[in-house]
């Protein structure tokens, strides 16, 4: 049987991956797509944001980052999809893997060559990287992950050009071409791009990847190097049961993400007072915005019968009206903050004060 093409969709935190995916899943283009979602932090908010009707074909992985702690889950997810497809239980002709904003696409792509079962069912169609035109210059200056995602791309999709002027777009494009002269660059504001620019690119050329990273195909785990991310929950606990961080494993060179980036979760089963919350979020974004890499949440507002989806990147914050709360669904608030040296306790205390 023909191999199933898989697209690795990558891009730094908040670049616009889910927005693009949502658009693709809504469009009538003839592709049947299965999605593998990997989100950093324990709460999969993207699941609320992605279109509901495709849900049965969305596999979530949120116990760690796809390029380090959950590579085994990726293999299992892929082989399980292939088995269900062969058994006629589900039907799809393409897989899209949305990585976390901090993932190194190298080890994700590697999985398709190293794992025999995966290699016998799938081929990497392309690594597609979404680049945030508003924040990319700073991200490229500061985070190796952002550089790697651009370096590994077979196609670069430029989002948020609506937020910057033409000169800034040109300057960014010139930089992207210097980092990765191979990858064509296409503008894709709010995911508006032809499907032919994203799927069926047949763009993954192993030789290029080997030039970029001579260890690419070696089965040695984590030959790549990236720095540290903690994943804190609201109790201040730093690492979950799947934690695989360096401080637990001093005996081998381990995959890590950028220093000082940490995630924490705020949860509550009391509703928010909208005005208080608006004011508080406005204030923290003003003060801590430059260090707030990504934040999102599903919110329960007092008196509202619909969920409110809230999200942002640095100072740019927005809300959308989400689905109705189900009749038997327990209402609650879930927020995830990913940032550099954010004062977790202050945030949590402040948010608590916005509850009814
Ligand atoms: N102005 C503008 N905003 C955009 C564009 N694309 C996405 N956004 C917004 O940017 C925010 C992040 O978009 P997502 O699609 O969730 O980004 P992501 O890459 O999936 O984020 P993570 O998976 O959390 O890293 C959302 O508030 C989007 O509405 C764009 O082209 N222009």
Automatic annotation (TrEMBL):
Q: Which CDD domains match?
A: CobW-like
Which residues does UniProt assign to the signal peptide? none
Q: What is the lineage of its organism?
A: Bacteria, Pseudomonadati, Pseudomonadota, Betaproteobacteria, Burkholderiales
Query: What SMART domains does its record include?
Result: CobW_C
Tell whether Disulfide bond is among the UniProt keywords.
no
Please give the family membership noted in the entry.
Belongs to the SIMIBI class G3E GTPase family. ZNG1 subfamily.
* Reaction(s) catalysed (UniProt annotation): GTP + H2O = GDP + phosphate + H(+)
GO cellular component term, pick one: cytoplasm
Q: Any idea what this protein is called?
A: Cobalamin biosynthesis protein CobW
Keyword annotations from UniProtKB, A to Z: Chaperone, Hydrolase, Nucleotide-binding
């Amino acid at each position: 049987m023909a191999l199933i093409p898989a697209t690795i969709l990558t891009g730094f935190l908040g670049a616009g991956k889910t927005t693009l995916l949502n658009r693709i899943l809504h469009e009538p283009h003839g592709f049947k797509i299965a999605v593998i979602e990997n989100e950093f932090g324990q709460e999969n908010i993207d699941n609320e944001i992605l279109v509901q009707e495709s849900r049965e074909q969305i596999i979530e992985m949120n116990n760690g980052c796809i390029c380090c702690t959950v590579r085994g889950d990726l293999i299992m997810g892929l082989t399980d999809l292939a088995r269900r497809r062969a058994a006629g239980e589900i039907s799809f002709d393409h897989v899209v893997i949305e990585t976390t904003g901090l993932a190194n696409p190298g080890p994700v792509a590697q999985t398709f060559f190293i794992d025999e079962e995966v290699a016998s069912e799938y081929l990497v169609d392309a690594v597609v990287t979404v680049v945030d035109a508003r924040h990319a210059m700073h991200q490229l200056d500061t985070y190796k992950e952002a550089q790697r995602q651009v370096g590994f791309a077979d196609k670069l999709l430029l989002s948020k050009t609506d937020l910057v002027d033409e000169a800034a777009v040109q300057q960014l494009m010139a930089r992207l071409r210097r980092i990765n002269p191979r990858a064509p660059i296409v503008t894709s504001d709010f995911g508006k791009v032809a499907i032919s620019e994203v799927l069926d690119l047949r763009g993954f050329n192993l030789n290029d990847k080997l030039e970029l990273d001579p260890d690419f195909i070696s089965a040695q785990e984590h030959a790549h190097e990236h720095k540290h991310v903690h994943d804190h929950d609201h109790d201040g606990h730093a690492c979950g049961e799947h934690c695989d961080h360096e401080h637990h494993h001093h005996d081998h060179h381990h995959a890590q993400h950028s220093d000082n980036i940490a995630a924490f979760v705020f949860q509550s089963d009391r509703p928010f007072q909208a005005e208080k919350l608006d004011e508080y979020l406005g204030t923290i974004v003003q003060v801590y915005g430059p260090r707030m890499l990504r934040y999102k949440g599903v919110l329960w507002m007092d008196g509202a019968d619909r969920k409110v989806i809230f999200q942002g990147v640095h100072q740019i914050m927005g809300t959308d009206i989400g689905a109705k709360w189900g009749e038997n669904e327990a209402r609650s608030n879930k927020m995830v903050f990913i940032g550099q040296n954010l004062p977790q306790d202050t945030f949590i205390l402040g948010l608590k004060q916005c509850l009814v």
